[in-house]
Specification:
This protein is an alpha+beta fold and about 325 residues long. The protein has three domains: about 110 residues, 3-Layer(aba) Sandwich (Trna Endonuclease, Chain: A, domain 1), CATH 3.40.1350.10; about 55 residues, Orthogonal Bundle (Arc Repressor Mutant, subunit A); about 130 residues, 2-Layer Sandwich (Beta Polymerase, domain 2). It has twelve helices and 14 strands. Helix 5 crosses helix 6 and helix 9 packs across helix 12. About 35% of the residues are buried.
Amino acid sequence: MITGEGNLILEHIKRELDISDNASVSWGVPVMEGQPFMADLVIEDYTKKYIIEIKSRLTIDTIGRQLVLKKLMQSSGSRNRYAEFVIASKLISPETEKIAHSCDIRIIPLPYRSDIPDSGKVDVRRIEKISSAKSWKIVIALLTEKESSIRHIAMKANVSYGWTHATVKSLLAKGIVAEVRNYVTLQDIPKLLNGIAWERPFEKLFYNEVTLPENDALSAARTITRMCDRQNIDCGFTSFTAGAMYTKYAFRHDAIYVYIRKDNLDPFVRSFDSADAHGIKVRVYKPDRDVFSDAQLAEEIRLVSPAQALLDLAGLGYSGRDLTLKLVEDYARL
């Protein structure tokens, strides 16, 4: 998170650059695709963009880093090639400041009492996997909004602007998202799904399989929902079961797929007779996040949310691809 001191430094920089109240601010984000460059701070204000390093001491190394990045951007035609490069620092020698100015790098003196970490980073925001809980909220917002600004996506997903910005930039670097005139849109759904299958294989969450002596999969799912409700056990049907219920497509009649809260897994499994060999297979999964808070009842079956069902189906890879694409197609109406 951005500390109080970080906010004071940000306000000082904004005053020095005469930044408007409508500007977007991102901490610790990648600034050039395919290159290991992270900016301490990026500020976008209408048509202007500032790429900012924050250091305790202004050094030739910091200037050199900014200069190399600037040249790379200009030669590669990067969308950031017209950005203004800035270094904010407490300790600035006249000789080093002169070198910075000769390289067309703007210097902002920081108050001497500013508390800057030794690494020079006010905050480095780690970009998690696409399948992480917060990042997946952003992906779902992109899926439902079709084309939108990063700020609107952040509001839709209820995720901080900084995290949303970093996640979208990561998706841009992977070729999953496209950006046109400050609007972003999902452009490569298959690549997104392949990424999820690699990052979070759904079957790694598999816990156990039991058999319910019934002939109908929907009836079996209703039986388990009622049983869990009576015993105050959190459950949520997912994967092929939830996907088919949401899309009315490709329902499996031989098995059902359900999350059970971790504390209840063993008692749940023990409640079935191991001698039952014929019936509906109940595949039980151990959740790696909260999948129960937004579960919903449909036809007396408790389903995980459409977003969670889509994540789990994508995690099946090609074995669940047809149903996954159908859920993507139908998602906006759910």
